[in-house]
Amino acid sequence: MKKAIVLALAVLVSVPLAFSAIVTNSNQSIQYYRMLARNASTDIDAVFYNPAGLVKLADGFHLSIQNQSIWQDKTVTNGFPFLNTDTYKGTTRVPVFPDIYAVYKTGKLALSFGFGPNAGGGTAKFNTGLPDLEIPFAEAMLPLDLIGAGVNHYSMAMQFEGKSVYYGFQVNASYAFTDWLAGSVGLRYISAKNTYTGSITNISYDFFGGPLQSAYNLFTAYGMPSWAALFVDRHVDVTQSGTGFTPILGIHLSPVEGLNIGLHYEFKTPLTLTNAVTQDNLGLFIDGATSHADIPAILGVGASYAIIPQLRAHASYTLYFDKNANWDGRETLVNSNSYDLAFGLEFDVLPEVTLSAGYMSSPMDLQPTFQSAMSFNLGANTVGFGAQLRIIPKLTIDLGALIATYKDAQQTLGYGIFGSASENYHETTWGFGIGFGYHFD
Fold it and tell me: How big, in percent rounded to 5, are the helix, strand and coil portions of the chain?
């Protein structure tokens, strides 16, 4: 029983909000929301997607402040026959997901700064628990029956809340070597923090066919402390934190009029998280112990082309080197590295108004045992759309929305003498956002 609870709680600290990658949040601008393919960007969000492309900005100081609001629903169904329900739902609501970009461009040189939640960024709530946590107590009905307690039903109160955010602070220096070739170097500082709180209380059974009553109280009254200890209320309050650095290199090519090609490479971010235990009467975490949670290296390649001056096509490919990260062995369950393949169009319907839309495919190739009820990653198809408004001189307003639909996953889990059962994972994510940019001469 305890082993199963340990396994379930150990993965709750990971609450990624990525629309695609296993760890990294690729949604780092409203321009991304409205067209999805940004690896050849020459706008201010190139600070994140294509730092070398910043040399294409006009001279002066550029500032952008953006915010996303994100909703994510996760559903787990488990066919274990003795559960009170087979469906468990988790929700993540993120009303504030900010990005800030600043660029100073003069001549051939551009210096830039970026801030945003590079991973995590949300709070996941499981108000009715999850099967990983509940099944051990459903299984306990058998041994209770064998000692003559005559139980057929159980109940308990469970709730868990996991929070995860990896804030990134990035600086870049970009330089135009020629009219068609530019390069960049950058560094991102990551400040990571995972927290979770939870409780399992009032574990009750219908002893001897009567009404439900506390198992802890009954075994205590019968002078059976070892049995009572199995059903004591459990409370957990744990924080994990760590810091890391990500070197970033970029190249931008513009070989012919209207064509932009961007490449950037983010080195792996070695990240070690350290436990700070406020409360844990399960003995699951050791205060001060560490675990590995690397952010994988990333290769981004993109191109944009002006078909006509008012119509531009964009394509992006982003590869995440998941298999080379250190996730304390979980990376061995990755069959092949994940990637995003995105296409977008934008059209200037008026000099002051640009409309855009995009599509992105993000396959996942993971072994079934990579997934768990509290932490699963699914392949996604994402569509985005939006607009940019330039009604006031030097001020741009970006509006965007997107929705990601995922390919369900499942696995068959074994439960010893209770046989096996199928567990299924389903997820949807959607969001919208607004960004304001201003160019100071």
Answer: 15, 55, 30
Going by their DSSP bridges, the two strands 298-308 and 259-266 should be labelled as antiparallel
The two three-digit tokens of residue 53, written as one number: 């492309």
Q: What is the largest CA-CA distance in the chain?
A: 85
Please choose, from the candidates 245, 116, 114, the residue with its C-alpha nearest in 3D space to the C-alpha of residue 171: 114
DSSP 8-state secondary structure symbol assigned to residue 59: S
The fold of the 2-440 domain, in CATH, is: Porin (2.40.160)
Q: What does the pLDDT look like over 130-172, one tens digit per residue?
A: 888 889 999 999 999 888 888 999 999 988 888 888 999 999 9
The model's pTM is 0.91
- Cβ burial of 427 (10 Å; 0-12, 13-18, 19+) is buried
Q: What is the CA radius of gyration of the chain?
A: 25
Task: Please classify residue 164 by burial: count the beta carbons closer than 10 Å to its beta carbon, then call 0-12 exposed, 13-18 middle and 19+ buried.
Answer: buried
How would you class 112 by CB atoms within 10 Å of its CB: exposed for 0-12, middle for 13-18, buried for 19 or more? buried
